[in-house]
Design brief:
Layout (H helix, E strand, L loop, with lengths): L8 E7 L6 E8 L4 E13 L3 E10 L14 E10 L2 E9 L4 H24 L6 E4 L5 E4 L1
Antiparallel strand pairs: 1-2, 2-3, 3-4, 4-5, 5-6, 7-8
Length: 142
């Protein structure tokens, strides 16, 4: 839910972070002159431990054409595990119907982890970010 490509403009229109709450975000891609809408429902919110939510992309407007009709709703789980002074973040995205769609989302999520790593690196404290690699296994980014 972040800007995974530097050209993207991300606008969070609605974030109701509670079990049963909804989110709606708009991603503008000026290079392609396209607008994408990400939206879903928080299925589980356990502060400092876990987020689980549905994930759906539409094009042009929130009620527009589903960008992935073969996998209209997928599910994302983000777990936060204490590791001493650091936190391991494990992101699992399930429900894909084909490898190409999964790879596209892997690139997007890894882009988000890259942004997070850059933000944390810029902070005065030393932090580590754990991101899944192309096989879905966790790898550590400093």
């Amino acid at each position: 839910m972040c800007r995974d490509a530097s050209a993207h403009i991300v606008i969070h229109h609605h974030q109701e972070i509670r079990t049963g709450g909804r989110y709606l975000l708009e991603v503008r891609d000026p290079g392609k002159n396209e607008v994408y809408w990400g939206q879903g429902v928080y299925l589980e919110v356990t502060p400092s431990e876990k987020l689980r939510f549905t994930w759906c992309w539409t094009k042009d407007r929130p009620d527009g054409q589903n960008m992935h009709p073969d996998a209209p709703k997928t599910e994302v789980t983000v777990e936060f595990l204490p590791r001493g002074a650091a936190t391991e973040v494990i992101l699992t995205h399930t429900g894909f119907t084909d490898a190409k769609l999964r790879q596209e989302h892997d690139r997007g999520w890894n882009g988000c982890f890259d942004v997070l790593a850059a933000v944390l690196t810029a902070q005065p404290s030393s932090s580590n970010v754990v991101a899944p690699d192309e096989t879905g296994n966790s790898s550590r980014a400093n």
